[in-house]
Amino acid sequence: MGEPHPATVLNVNDDDANRYLVNRLLSLAGYNVVEAATGMGALLMAQQHRPDVIILDVKLPDISGYEVCERLRANPQTAAMAVLHTSATFVTSDKKVRGLDGGADAYLTQPFEGAELIATVKSLLRLRHAEQVARQRANALAEMDRRKDEFLAMLGHELRNPLAAIMTAIGILERRPTSDDKEARMRGIIQRQTNHLARLVDDLLDVSRITRDKVELRPGSVDLVPVLRQVLQIVQPMADSRGLGLDVSLPSGPLWLQADATRLEQVFTNLLDNAIKYTDAGGVHLRAEQEGVGGAAQAVVRVKDSGIGIPPEVLPHIFELFAQADTSLERSRGGLGIGLTLVRKLIQLHGGEVTARSNGPGHGSEFVVKLPLDHTMGKSAPARDAVDLRRGRRVLVVEDNSDARQAMRDLLELWGHQVAVAPDGLQGVALAMAQPPELALVDIGLPGLDGYRVAQTLRAQVGNGIRLVAMTGYGSPHGRDQALRAGFDRHLVKPVKPDELDRILSEL
Ligand code: ADP
User: Fold this and answer.
1) What spacing in Å lies between the alpha carbon of 147 and ligand 1's midpoint?
2) Which domain of life does the UniProt lineage start with (predicted)?
């Protein structure tokens, strides 16, 4: 493999005769030669000519060759240049060491043979070339990785919209009684699989965040107990379908945390999901309790199963991205290998820790989550003025996706509301001004006037009597703050689950 030609060599020496000699040797060998007689001159030439190799005499009249080398290394533009130190006859080995430690790539003691010099320059060029190739490869990989992350994020977004519409539609179907067993079964399948799909999409979106350290929390005062109950509701059908018992032990009182409820739900859904998925017989235990007192008090949640267990060699890596114990081809329980990475990251962001235990294959697994308790929260949050928004209200839905709009309308009508709908922000505002609703559900990503502007306009024109709920895609981590600033009372992340909407309406 030949080095890129013609390479440029900067020859730095204050001894004119010596410099001339080396210049000639280099020229004869076919290199472009530039020269300098001082240390400062060398730095200047290095900037200007971007040499591939610098032959740098250690003893210079102004700053020493060592210092020149250090300065070259400190400047990103010159850092990658190969430096060959040269020095006069008598050099102790500690000086050589100092030069090499200071960042030089090679050392030659004068007088040296011409052939030795050229061979050393050649070898440095080869090294440099290899480094360049490696760097380019690393850059290309990083770029591909970044694009992959972007692609995953975009894919997740695109998948969310259709999912949102499907989930709302399912919510409606579910509320309609059926006496047909088969239909009920089919509905069950659709619902479970859609929920599963929604979780995969969530995970997919999160993975690009984790890799870029962009996972953010939206913390508030949260009682962990209802969060766990909610999660149990989600996973119960899956446990039933696998014929597994879910044994639950929750404390009678609350476990207050400063936490992001949605994220906690995600954590425990993942853990319980896994426990069920990786267990064929027996059951899954969920136990939550308080341990310790005062400032050291923490909520401890154990998810234990009697399943396939985790081999000891896999256990230390189980929380790493894409880690999977089962690498067999069929991977019948298949997932993406993202869940546990997310779990750990989210728990860490909450100031907690998660550990995994297993007595090995066939002996079940246990995951233990510890979260600091928020001891400032003694009582439940004060209830705001109690208006029941759950029945018979005037509701406006502003949503540009027609399926999602229709499904939301059907759902709200089913709950007994009078519903008006608008496909974009301008029409939404016009409708609201003509007949002010009591509640407006507003998508943020609207054509023309976006959801934030809709909220600002409604607050300005219609006033504070109206309750505003934002519905956003998953994109912006600041979504919630921005929504609250724009005047929204609440913020929901799509796909909006009917239960969640019901809860929000009851809270408002
Ligand atoms: P996924 O389940 O999507 O593969 P996770 O990150 O949730 O990804 O889990 C990573 C791996 O850890 C799984 O593939 C599985 O091998 C192992 N694992 C997780 N939970 C359990 C469990 N409760 N029992 C046995 N193995 C588990």
Assistant:
1) 27
2) Bacteria
